[in-house]
């Protein structure tokens, strides 16, 4: 296996190309958009497990330096009751902490890192089909051209064309009952120090904010909405109208939400929030899926990018240590399936807490403090944030990979579907 075709030039595609290069597999990235998407997306968090995955590729420093550290999370109810601090894991050996970064900056940094390492990236290449040709695989593009390689990796996101080739009956993205937006303001005096994300489960909506080192306040909201709106539905409401709706949603809550919303220009970009469990098989022939093409965890998990980074590193290890693509892909899925399912299940629980209304919200406010006292411990979240991939260790035999995964996988699938 000497050359991989990577479909999708976003975050997952760039990191996968870098990871494959580390194990001696050249990769070419093919992106449907005609230009780089530097201005796409809002802010996002990169947790320590994701940064640790990048560190195995010597790629974490650029990401760390493009964002700012937020090593602490404080959770509150809308009535002002402090629920407790959220553990964010053990800092990396070089002192790296979790970061918040603009999605556009994350994309730009990883794309530039891939280019710096010699990865070719071609734009305007929209995938139209996939063909297996003996021991090779071909990507057919809608401009009439094609590319042939030893492997084809679908890193083409939530609307993946490659996923439909791997499994036409794969799960589809599902709306989780929340829409999101956010903003940045420097027009207010911060009431907290940089380094803490304050999360408020309000009476009608969820609000989070953090202070950047330059004194700006970054914030985002998740607003319950029963039925998924279309893009037209969201843009039909003007910015000032949305601002008034947000102010009403947070009036009466003890949080900085109202002040932040009033101080921010109302040019919102709204997005419906989705998740998607992985298909039963992540691969077919010489084709395999990574990142959001394989699984989508809602933004509530804070793990979307980190799961893609882990995918890329584990896939590279398996391709390094398995002679045949099918064997490598099976080992890769076994390493990832149970962990991804657990992250999806956890995010669904958080989504239910964010979208609770009426009696459900009252019950949430009563039970949440009890839950936090019992389960919010560093040990409880070590499986997530302190997860580290030993890149140099050979991938174990299939019988011992992810020991215990088979026992929990059926339950994970049941809870995430």
Explain what the structure shows.
- The protein has 417 residues and is of the alpha/beta class.
- It has 2 domains: 3-70 and 94-173 and 277-356 and 377-416, FAD/NAD(P)-binding domain (3-Layer(bba) Sandwich), CATH 3.50.50.60; 174-274, D-Amino Acid Oxidase, Chain A, domain 2.
- Helices cover 38% and strands 23% of the residues.
- The chain is built from 13 helices and 19 strands.
- It has helices spanning 11-22, 48-55, 60-66, 103-116, 161-166, 231-235, 239-250, 257-262, 304-321, 325-355, 358-375, 378-385, 405-416; strands spanning 3-7, 26-30, 43-46, 68-69, 72-77, 82-86, 99-102, 121-122, 127-133, 136-141, 146-149, 151-154, 174-185, 196-201, 206-211, 217-224, 271-275, 283-284, 287-289.
- The chain has a 7-stranded mixed beta sheet with strand order 6-5-14-15-16-13-17, with helices on both faces. A 6-stranded mixed beta sheet has the order 8-2-1-12-19-18. A 3-stranded antiparallel beta sheet has the order 3-7-4.
- Helix 2 (48-55) crosses helix 3 (60-66).
- The longest helix has 31 residues, at 325-355.
- The model is unreliable at 398-413 (pLDDT under 50).
Quick structural overview:
This protein has 417 residues and is an alpha/beta fold.
- Beta-strand content: 15-25%
Mean pLDDT: 92
Please state the CA-atom Rg, rounded to the nearest Å.
Answer: 21 Å
CATH superfamily of the largest domain: FAD/NAD(P)-binding domain
Low-confidence stretches: 398-413
Number of helices: 13
Using the coordinates shown, work out and report the CATH topology of the largest domain: FAD/NAD(P)-binding domain
């Amino acid at each position: 296996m000497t050359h991989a075709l990577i479909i999708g030039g976003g975050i997952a595609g760039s990191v996968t190309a870098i990871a494959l290069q580390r194990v001696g597999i050249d990769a070419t990235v093919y992106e449907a958009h005609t230009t780089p998407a530097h201005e796409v997306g809002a802010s996002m968090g990169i947790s320590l497990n994701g940064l640790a995955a990048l560190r195995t590729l010597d790629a974490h420093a650029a990401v760390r330096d493009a964002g700012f550290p937020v090593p602490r999370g404080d959770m509150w109810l809308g009535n002002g009751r402090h629920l407790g601090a959220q553990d964010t894991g053990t800092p990396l050996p070089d002192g790296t902490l979790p970061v918040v970064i603009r999605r556009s900056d994350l994309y730009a940094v990883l794309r530039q890192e891939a280019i710096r390492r010699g990865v070719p990236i071609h734009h305007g290449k929209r995938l139209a089909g996939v063909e297996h040709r003996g021991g090779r695989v071909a990507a057919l593009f809608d401009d009439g051209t094609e590319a042939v390689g030893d492997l084809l990796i679908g890193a083409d996101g939530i609307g993946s064309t490659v996923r439909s080739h791997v499994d036409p009956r794969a799960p589809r993205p599902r709306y989780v009952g929340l829409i999101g937006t956010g903003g940045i303001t420097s027009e207010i005096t911060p009431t907290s120090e940089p380094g803490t994300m304050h999360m408020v489960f309000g009476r009608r909506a969820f609000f989070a904010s953090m202070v950047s080192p330059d004194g700006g306040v970054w914030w985002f909201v998740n607003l319950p909405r029963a039925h998924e709106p279309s893009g037209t539905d969201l843009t039909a409401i003007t910015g000032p109208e949305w601002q008034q709706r947000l102010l009403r949603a947070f009036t009466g809550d003890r949080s900085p939400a109202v002040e932040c919303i009033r101080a921010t220009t109302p040019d919102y970009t709204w997005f419906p929030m989705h998740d998607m469990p992985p298909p039963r098989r992540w691969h077919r022939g010489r084709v395999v899926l990574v990142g959001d093409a394989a699984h989508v965890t809602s933004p509530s998990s804070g793990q979307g990018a980190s799961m893609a980074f882990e995918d890329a590193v584990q896939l590279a290890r398996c391709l390094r240590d398995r002679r045949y693509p099918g064997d490598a892909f099976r080992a890769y899925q076994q390493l990832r399936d149970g962990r991804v399912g657990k992250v999806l299940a956890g995010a669904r629980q958080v989504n239910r807490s964010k979208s609770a209304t009426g009696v459900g919200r009252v019950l949430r406010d009563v039970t949440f403090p009890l839950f936090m006292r019992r389960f919010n411990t560093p040990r409880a979240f070590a499986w997530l944030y302190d997860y580290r991939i030993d890149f140099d260790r050979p991938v174990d035999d299939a019988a011992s990979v992810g020991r215990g995964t088979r026992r929990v996988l059926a339950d994970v699938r049941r809870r995430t579907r």
